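Input.
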Amino acid sequence: MGSVTLTGPAPSGGMLVKLSSSSRSAVVPATVRVASGKTTATFTVRTVAVATNLTATITAAVASTTQTASLTVEPPTLKSLTLTPTSVKGGDWSLAKVTLTSAAPVGGLTIALSSNVSGATVPGSVKIAPGATSASFTVKTTAVTATKTATISATLQAASATANLTIKP
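Output.
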């Protein structure tokens, strides 16, 4: 959400303020109207998923006066890793789901996967499609003679998430 503030109340009929953004990853309306007698109006800034931090300059203009503000659009990060079910008999499988904090950018995002137990196998990675916030994969298990707990890990850059899977004989 953005806002513009005038130095004094808008005249009768209001004041139209022109808006622009330096980036297609931070989209603003072309104008916002400050209502008559008011000094402030708000507008929505729609962001588009990015792969790396991006700083956009938002510009507001009335006549020959302009003001700018910077907005940093951040890429999504890893939010969670869940397993359903969290306990299986060896030889069965569990459905895993990785979730991002926001939509994946153009090109999608690849999440690295691992398991600390050889009896619980995961693919090396899973790709979250552009615009999506999650992806699923299966954790395959093998028969065990004693109950084991496998820690399944998902990693995206510096962020990681884990979930435990109990494998029973």
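The chain has two domains: 2-73, 78-168.
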